[in-house]
What does this fold into?
Amino acid sequence: MTDYPTLDLNDERQIPQLGFGTYKLEEKDAAKSVSAAIDVGYWLVDTAAIYENEKGVGEGVGDWSDIFLQTKIWNESQGFDRTKKAAQKCLDRLGREHVDMLLIHWPCPDKGLFVETWRALVELRDEGKAKSIGVSNFREQDLRRIIEETCVTPALNQIELHPSFQQRELRKLHDELGIVTQSWSPLGQGDGMDNDIIRAIADETGQPASAVILRWHLQHGLCPIPKATSREHIEANFKALSFELSEDQISRIDKLDSADGRMGPDPSKFC
Ligand SMILES: NC(=O)c1ccc[n+]([C@@H]2O[C@H](COP(=O)([O-])OP(=O)(O)OC[C@H]3O[C@@H](n4cnc5c(N)ncnc54)[C@H](OP(=O)(O)O)[C@@H]3O)[C@@H](O)[C@H]2O)c1
It folds into this structure.
């Protein structure tokens, strides 16, 4: 991973900055796409119990034990004992003794279980089943609550983040608390490339529009995890590592932020 960009986690480990997402990759296609992504050069692969593709993802990663592998505990498995059992099932499906990052998928505030779920992740980390632990879709109040009650700060919060929904306040809080921001749907679920500013910058740089968006994430210190099925898309997205955007180009993309740009569920309600 010599020349690959990485970010420092608050647990003294490092995370590769560009990852590969696998949501909606069916079990039968997951192994092929993941092994293509690793062949192209990606060092991080993200999956989740709810994606129902962990077996294929594990097969795609194969013997590449240095690949940074992440998975997530689904909402129905929240609670201390259920989470511990669910994590073991994830490991069994992935064919691994441990994952590099284990996340709570959604806070589900109405369930009232995320603090004990977090305690289970802390224990799983102490047992060596997850090298690092973090959360996903956590809001400021959720982050503050687990930190206050357990004194353990998540290493990472994986949140919806793309040019139309830039999450500036949460990113600022993450920086204050020492939490890495990982961007889900970094390409706006594929819609982000269909934008005049993005297309203009793609023309100026001679790079694919998807790589322009991913480069914007990287230069902001974010960790994007684009999903792609074909090798053509996987390679286009990887070009994000091979050029730089100017300050002017970054600020033109910064201006695409929109108050109603959220595409996925609202974490205060979703469970
Ligand atoms: N924690 C959470 O709650 C949460 C929620 C959603 C997603 N995620 C994670 O974040 C990952 C990424 O998010 P996402 O999958 O929602 O959206 P995304 O990565 O923003 O976009 C994926 C879409 O863009 C298309 N695409 C990718 N590269 C392309 C290219 N070079 N040219 C044209 N189209 C391209 C893909 O098509 P093809 O597949 O046809 O290539 C797919 O339709 C997920 O896979 C998952 O790992 C997490």
